[in-house]
Every structure is written in structure tokens, then in C-alpha cells.
Amino acid sequence: MEWPLVFAAFILGLILGYIGKTLVSRGLGKSSKGAAIERSKMELSQHKQEVSDHLAEQRALLGQLTEQINRLNQHWNQGSQRLAKEEQLPPLPFMQTSTNDADDQVETTPSLRAEQN
């Protein structure tokens, strides 16, 4: 008569263990999901900051490159005016350096604008 009682206690222990494990895992799951969401938000904001820093650095480098190209064009225009006085070559265009994206276009001289139209 003891074996059926031991078997029933074993089955009851399995059922209670499963229910307890389920309740505990639900509580841990909610807290781990909240931590995962917070971690994802932090990673996203860090990634946004890295992208922003990268774009700012690239914009600064492009500004420096534009200035160097303008100096090269100015040097080329001065040299061509001194060396080829009789030919009157059209000057090379200069690039604008501004903070507006709409203004980031190549500025052309009036003679080149006429040729383009």
C-alpha cells in the first residue's frame, strides 16, 4: 500500500515542480525582456551617435578637400592667365563651401554658365 502513495506523491511533485518552474520563468522572462529592450535602446542611441560623429567628420574632411581644390583651381587659373595671355582660357570653376546642403553645388563662372545652357 505504500507504493501507490509514493507514486502519487512523485506525480504530485512533478506537477507542482512544473507549475513552479513556469511561474518563475515568466517572472524572469519579463525582467529579462525589459533588460533586453533597455540594452537595445542604449545600443541604438550609441549607434546613432557614432553615425552622427562619422558624418560630421566626413563633412569636415569634404570641406577641407573643397578648400584644397579651390586653392588648386586658383593656382591653375593664375598660372594659365600668366602663361597663356593671348588665348584667354576660361577659368576653372570654384566650389562653394556652405553649411546648407542645397548650396553644396559647384559654382560656375558666367562664361561656363553660357556654355552649359
TrEMBL record:
Annotated region described as Disordered, given as residue ranges: 77-117
Coiled coil: 37-75
Keywords attached to this entry: Cell cycle, Cell division, Cell inner membrane, Cell membrane, Cell shape, Coiled coil, Membrane, Transmembrane, Transmembrane helix
Chain ranges passing through the membrane: 6-24
Highest taxon of source: Bacteria
Cellular localisation: Cell inner membrane
PANTHER family: INNER MEMBRANE PROTEIN YHCB
Family: Belongs to the ZapG family.
Protein known as: Z-ring associated protein G
Annotated organism of origin: Shewanella carassii
Taxonomic path: Bacteria, Pseudomonadati, Pseudomonadota, Gammaproteobacteria, Alteromonadales
